[in-house]
Amino acid sequence: MKRFGGIVLIIAVAFAALYGLNRWSWRAQEGQELPLPKEEVAQRHHEKSSETEFAAGPVGQPLGDPKAKVRVVAVVPMGVACHMQTMQILQEIAKADPKRVRVEFYDMHSPQGQKELAKHNIHCATVLVNGKFEWKVKRDGKEQTVVCQRKPNEPMSTYNSIDLIEIVHQELQRQYGKGFEPAVLQRLRAKGRQILGIPGATALPEEPSSAKAKVVVEVLAPSRQASIYTLFANTVEALQPLKKRYGEALAIRVYSLMTREGQDRLRALNLSGPAVVINGKTVHELEEPGKGKRQIVTAFGSSSLQFSPEDVKKVVLALLEKRP
Predict the structure, then answer these.
(1) Fold exhibited by the domain 199-321
(2) Which of 234, 198, 215 is nearest to 318 (CA)?
């Protein structure tokens, strides 16, 4: 009888363990957060806090004058890379004009963050500028609607982090009659592109599509993790001496194909991947003294011969020196 009772007890324990494991698995499949050991909870909290502090200081700490007429409120999940890029760009905006711009950061999972979202009846990561998250900005001379919600900087995103520079610039014009100073705006645009990892960002002119440009180079660059990234970064670098020499006659615009802006431009040019587009073309004929003519294709993968930064430089130089 005791032996039978022992068997029953073992079966009961096994059943309870199996039931608990099944519940655990079900919660994981449903996306519910599973409990963690205390040591791991403490470690995660420490990692999250240090990353948050690096990007924006203590959560909720405002930047800028409380009386500023432009108030930016970022309610985002802390520790997510794309949102941290947004926060870094907002930091730069606040530093650029602290008397006229106020920036506040909130963890969307905190009580204060939830309170901020509830004020506007929204339930996802959002950046609000004077209470609005939907704006119109100009890209390549065309007006587009951007919605500053959810994850930015991806092909299917509804906004890029650098859109916030243009939005705040617009709102400063509306509230004060004057936006950022031209030099400040140029610096912010360059810094924003640098934060997003777009090659050659610090050397971009403020208006790359200037009417004075004789040659327009558009670099559609892959992600920084791609093996061919250095080819495009080196190409932009190779063009800098020409930019310095020819000034406004040469316009250089760099797009990251990891952004919605880059994907839009890719489709507009009817291309399928990374490329260097020179005056709207990716196939060029170059004539060199003593070598004759040769064809250079600057769309990656469209030719068996890979172009080099020096090839691009030669094509651009030939166009700059070509007489009308």
Answers:
(1) Glutaredoxin (3.40.30)
(2) 215
